[in-house]
Prior knowledge:
Layout (H helix, E strand, L loop, with lengths): L24 H8 L11 E5 L2 E4 L4 E4 L2 H4 L8 H13 L10 H13 L4 E5 L2 H16 L6 E5 L8 H6 L3 H4 L9 E4 L4 H7 L4 E6 L2 E2 L5 E2 L2 H13 L3 E5 L14 H4 L5 E4 L10 E5 L1 H4 L15 H16 L2 H23 L4 E7 L2 E6 L3 H10 L2 E2 L1 E3 L5 E4 L7 H18 L5
Parallel strand pairs: 3-15, 5-6, 5-7, 7-10, 10-11
Antiparallel strand pairs: 1-2, 2-3, 4-12, 8-9, 11-12, 13-14, 14-17, 16-17
Amino acid sequence: MEERDPLKPPEFQKTPFSSSRKENWEERGSRVLLGNYTREPLVFEKGRGSYLFDSAGVSYLDFLGGIAIHVLGHCHPGITHAIQKQAQRMVHLSNLYYNPAVVDFAEILVEKTFADRVFFSNSGTEAVEAAIKLARRYGAQTGRFEMISMEGSFHGRTLGAMTLTGQPKIREGFGPLPPGFLYAPFNDFEKVRATRTKDTVAVIVEPVQGEIGVIPAQKEFLQKLREWTREEDILLILDEIQTGMGRTGTLYAYEQYEIVPDILVSSKALGGGLPLGAILTTDRLSQFLPPGSHGSTFGGNPVACAAGAALLRALFAEDFLPERVRTMSAYLWDGLIALKGRYPSVIREVRGKGFMIGIVVNASAKKIKDRFREERVLVNATGPADEVIRLLPPLSLSYDETDDFLSVANRIFSALSGGGT
């Protein structure tokens, strides 16, 4: 019997892509696409489950998932069917009218979270902008407009969200920036409190800082922050764009911190792979965005909402939350901790929550990422000093796929440590 390639699912072994066209997509893309991305030398044409396939049918184990988008892998049957079904009914409808797909998804989000009300946008950065506007409208009654964000945070690329982002390199060269944004050290409650002024109306924080290197918030920090902001009539906004949709083990990470925010910002996986963002909030706060104060032409697109609803139903119907995610992520974490013990000269730390993991290395993360790519495994390099390998595998990851990843990681880290075991 022919031995199975561990990084190629059996159903695709004998069905490689047939490409009569031999276009050089990399070369063509480099001529016409704006050069604001550093793209990998890869062209993918198809995805299934935990794998991506190039035009030759070569499979890659995807531990990046479109940067935390595909929590149930590529082309989940329920999500795909929901997209097809809704596209046959209606692709777009103005927000001047109601649509069953949009209302249905909002009802599910309200049922499963603290929220009473939902506003849909096209993306995470637009959802952050909506949260900024809601906070400022709330503060206008007392003349407050300032927001405190955390150093190292990432909230988006539009002007307001970028200014809110606590990384100077993200803001560099785009001034003058809008006023009213302050920054405080992450996980340091006393310094956040000391940053507050009489004009402060809101504090925004990510339960796990993803772009800076997968750094989780301390439970005590968020709980103190919640207690203080409530006492001082300051809004607490949680940016759960990357941590949402089960990524950390619960639908949203705030549940694990045993707090409830005033506003929650969601996106990435929210639309089941389609562009969709949202803010979740309360009846009381929703009154500060009355008709005409904010809007979005494509926000709450019926197809994206149908996909998001299908994702949410699958997460609960297929028992991913919380038990399966807890079990499978623990299996992966155990393997990574074992690698850390085996190669301490290479791996400095393993941190994160659930299926949002950062491996802090004593080497160039970008070079290690390239080694993974050569082994047909996709990971991400991040961190301010090129020292973190970021893992964002699907929640549907199997034991065999986890073992395949750990086997590749073992080979790479063994070579970097000089071949030690």
